């Protein structure tokens, strides 16, 4: 009896937890199309009585969203590119060589993860100011956020590389390839799925980056959407449906990308590159 | 088969940190020879093979392949092929792509590559599997692909690291013959690592027995069987293993006396210092059962095991010996048997150095 019901029970718990997390997303979409009075009605309505779709177009134009979103894409793209290129190389070295220096390196990389962005932002700001990087604020944010994203990426991709048997590489060497050639023709294709997953996660978290952008980028035309959203949230802001509409426009592309690519990744993983 | 050396190892040393993995290895392999490296786990067989492939850097000595100095030369410039125990097939490539990987790296023209693939596929019986991925093959088929990937290159030497240990017993016996036949057909030079002495004995022209990073003895299989240089080689080569009995050389210098008075002394067919502490080695298949010229000793049978064609006896009191008899026997546990060993088949090792005397 218990054996047959336990999985179902656990599934129900998992769904419940997912619902707690996903409910705000639903609430965001619903609120964005409600009228001002309906938002505050008690009891709340779970489905808008009179959906006002026009709010999206209105917010899109009024809040200069194309500029903000473009900046978010530029920053997230830059962070992902730097993290993937440098992090992959770093993860490979950390996976393949074992000695004291590598352990120290790994420790330092993990250390980066411990330091919160809110603590790091002031010293970074001062440092960037000294070398004149603040004249290129988006570049500065990309560098700072890439450093922040690196540990997570390196640790996960390192595990992926470690799952690729060393003998495959050695076999490629004996078959006449160089170390670099063996890396690109054998190791990288086999670690591709892991790297892809980590790159997507990096992109998505960089797309929502806030702390560095807020403090480093002063000019509104260079700010990402996360900072643009916070401009909305004043102490006496009441324009809830506009804020929710902004948020909806902001997260929908990420959700869509995630859903689309996740299917691809799962398909890739189950077809089994290894074994 | 010419006698020019294809592989020359002179005084090879290899350290892993402070661990001395290979100690002064000297080995010359003529072109066309099939050499087996045997020894217990951890004795350095794989290390030696990987050093030959260039996957490990040797710490000292001289290594030559086809006359060219190989010290410090990267694997891709050595022109040797290696078959790994795990086969190390590239999982993201089809069988065909696995086979042609090395040719593609060399920039061999498409047409030539296709011909080579077909020929190899026919040789190893993979014609209809070329478009499968390794995960879609059985263990034996994977093993063949690994072989094919090596032979398609016509390398200067083949290196095998326990290539059959993942196969079942029947397939192993079959592949043993097939690999040896392939070696002969290609006129290749092969170094074959195994911990299975039967594999080494049946396949190789030359067997190298290693122990703790040292070459204990090398020679033809029958040489090692007939004239083991040390007690270790004597115990390692031959199955079931040789019986060892501690003893002393008798006053006449030509026979051994045992510590137990109820064991008769044994003529050894040579002269040694009387009173010297020795170990007597008797191969199970050399012990004759039955009243042989009255010179034997009487022992009690403890266990009788029959395989149909062979019978294994284990004796007790006063001496525990393993004996192999051909055919069958009426003997039962508890029976007394007369055993004797011709003096030509008595091996004597020094008790201290364990070297053959
Ligand atoms: N990378 C390494 N670092 C340190 N020691 C090593 C390394 N590789 C091998 N060794 C040591 O060298 C010795 C020889 O190892 P090797 O792999 O050559 O043994 P082997 O004869 O192939 O054994 P097996 O039959 O189990 O494969 C072992 O004691 C092993 O612990
Ligand atoms: Mg080994």
From TrEMBL, chain A:
> Which regions span the lipid bilayer?
7-29, 68-94, 106-128, 140-161, 182-204, 243-261
Q: Which PANTHER family does the UniProt record give?
A: INNER MEMBRANE ABC TRANSPORTER PERMEASE PROTEIN YCJP, MALTOSE TRANSPORT SYSTEM PERMEASE-RELATED
GO terms under cellular component: plasma membrane
| Family membership | Belongs to the binding-protein-dependent transport system permease family.
- Provide the protein's localization: Cell membrane
Q: Which GO terms describe its biological process?
A: transmembrane transport
Whether DNA repair counts among this entry's keywords is no
Give the InterPro entries listed for this entry. Answer: BP-dep_ABC_trans_perm, MetI-like, MetI-like_sf
Keywords attached to this entry = Cell membrane, Membrane, Transmembrane, Transmembrane helix, Transport
Q: Which Pfam families does the annotation name? A: BPD_transp_1
Q: What is its membrane topology? A: Multi-pass membrane protein
Write the protein's name: ABC transporter permease
UniProtKB/TrEMBL annotation, chain B:
Q: Which organism is it from?
A: Devosia elaeis
Annotated GO MF terms: ABC-type transporter activity; ATP binding; ATP hydrolysis activity
A Pfam family: ABC_tran
| Gene Ontology biological process terms, A to Z | carbohydrate transport
Query: In its keyword annotation, does this UniProt entry include Transmembrane helix?
Result: no
Q: Which family does it belong to?
A: Belongs to the ABC transporter superfamily.
* SUPFAM superfamilies, alphabetized: MOP-like, P-loop containing nucleoside triphosphate hydrolases
Q: What is this protein called?
A: Glycerol-3-phosphate ABC transporter ATP-binding protein
Per UniProt, subcellular location reads as:
Cell inner membrane
Domain named ABC transporter: residues: 7-237
Recorded topology in the membrane: Peripheral membrane protein
Where would one find the signal peptide in this protein?
none
Q: What are its GO cellular component terms?
A: ATP-binding cassette (ABC) transporter complex, substrate-binding subunit-containing
Q: What is the lineage of its organism?
A: Bacteria, Pseudomonadati, Pseudomonadota, Alphaproteobacteria, Hyphomicrobiales
Enumerate the UniProt keywords alphabetically. ATP-binding, Nucleotide-binding, Transport
